[in-house]
Amino acid sequence: MSEPKFLTLDISGIVPEAGAPAPERIVSGNPQFRTWNAEERDGSLYAGVWESTPGKWRIEYDEWEFCHILSGVSVITQEDGAARTVRAGDSFVLRPGFKGSWEVLETTRKEYVIRL
């Protein structure tokens, strides 16, 4: 049987991976992650759902990531201090080379597509 060519991001049958920022990246709080990876291709493309509890940590992107916020509120701040508040319904792309911080104010859940 061939692999389906249409995939929904139905995470109901996926056991989430638990995680957290590296301790040296945490600025405040105790953020905890859950990730439901629904698609992985050649180790260079990932798609799924990610969730984090409140906290703030430093981020550095080597990859390209599309995000669509499903719930919660976060503030993403660039290294130069420019900040964006994102909430349910917002979509954006973080490009390779992005540096700054991610602060989860209310537990945030997003759909993502990452390309390495």
Automatic annotation (TrEMBL):
Pfam family, one: Cupin_3
Transmembrane segments: none
Every (S)-ureidoglycine aminohydrolase cupin domain range: 40-112
Protein name: Cupin superfamily protein
Species assigned in the record: Aquamicrobium ahrensii
